[in-house]
Amino acid sequence: MNLPDGFDAWAAWLGLAVALGVLELFSLDLILLMLAAGAIVGMLVSLTGVDLWVQVVAAVVASVAALGVVRPSVVKRLHTGPNLVLGHEALVGRQGLVVQEVSSQAGQIRVGGEIWTARPYDDDQVIPVGAKVDIFQIKGATALVHHVPELG
User: Is the terminal CB of the chain with fewer CB neighbours within 10 Å at N or C?
Assistant: First the structure.
C-alpha cells in the first residue's frame, strides 16, 4: 500500500501507543497497555521502511503475544500479596526449643523468647528437654509440636 508523501508511519504508531497508554490509565485492566506495546512494535518495524501491512502484522502479533503471555502473569502478581498472619497463627511453621519435657500430659517450649505450653502432635511421642521442635498447630494456648530429628 502506498502512503501519501510526508506521512510518517512511525509517528502514527507512536501516537496510537500514547493514546492507548493514556486510555489504560482509565481502565486499569492492562489490555490497552498490551495493545500499546504492540503499537510500539509497529512503530519500530515502520522505522525499517517495510510496507504498512508488515507493520500491522507485527503490531498484531506483538499485541496478541503480550495479551497471552505477559498480561496473565502481571495480573496474577498484582492480585496476590503477602499473607498477613497475626497472633498465634504466626507461630505455625516455626521452630522452638523444649524447656520442659513434652509428653501427652504437657510440656513447655520456647519460641521467639516466649514460653508456650506444648503437647506432641503424635500423642505417643515424648520429646526431651533441649530438643528442637516444629510447631504444627496451635489449639487454644497449646502448641502441637513434632520433634525435629538431628543428624549425628
Answer: C
